[in-house]
Every structure is written in structure tokens, then in C-alpha cells.
Amino acid sequence: MDMTCVFFGLFHNMYCAHGAEMAIYYYFFTGLGVNAYILGWYVYKCGYLKTSIYIHSLVHICANIANTCLAAGHLTTTPIVHLLLK
User: Fold this and answer.
1) Angle formed by the axes of helices 2-17 and 23-45, to 10°?
2) Rounded distance between C-alpha atoms, residue 25 and residue 71, angstroms
3) Regarding predicted confidence, which is higher, 33 or 23?
4) Residues in Cβ contact with 77 at an 8 Å cutoff, skipping those fewer than 6 apart
5) Position 44 confidence tier, pLDDT thresholds 50, 70, 90
6) Which of 42, 70, 77, 86 is 20 to 30 A from 54 in CA distance terms?
7) H-type helices in the chain, by residue range?
8) Helix, strand, or coil here: 77?
9) pLDDT of residue 57
């Protein structure tokens, strides 16, 4: 359930970032976060639990920076809001 919410939130924000003023920064930090997630999983599977915890914290740091960049700029579209207002 948790990963499903993350998945839908991520793709909603990626859709909203398309054409946004700060889109390149959003995609950059989101990409770093996704790579940190993959690396953290790999390190965990190799048996380095403590290191994987630190790497996983980078996922959240990168995601927060990405969302802050997205919110700081002008959004051209917010599809969920448009659906709710109809």
C-alpha cells in the first residue's frame, strides 16, 4: 500500500512537472532519489544494513528537494485539481 501511494504520487508530480518552470531541477533530484533507492536496495542485499539505511535517507532528502523545486516554480498544469473542480 505504501509503495502504491509513492508510485502514484511520483507519477502525478512527474506529470505536473512537465512544462513547469523548475522541471529540470525536479527531474534531476527525482532521478537522484530513484538511483539512491536502487543503490540502497543493492547495498541491503549485499548485507550492509547500516549503509543501506543512510542511502535510503538520501531517497527522502532528494525527494524533498525535488518537491521543493517543483513547488518553487510556476506550474503550468495541475490535472488532479482540474478534475476535482469540474
Assistant:
1) 150
2) 11
3) 33
4) 15, 16, 18, 19
5) very high
6) 70
7) 2-17, 23-45, 49-72, 79-85
8) coil
9) 96
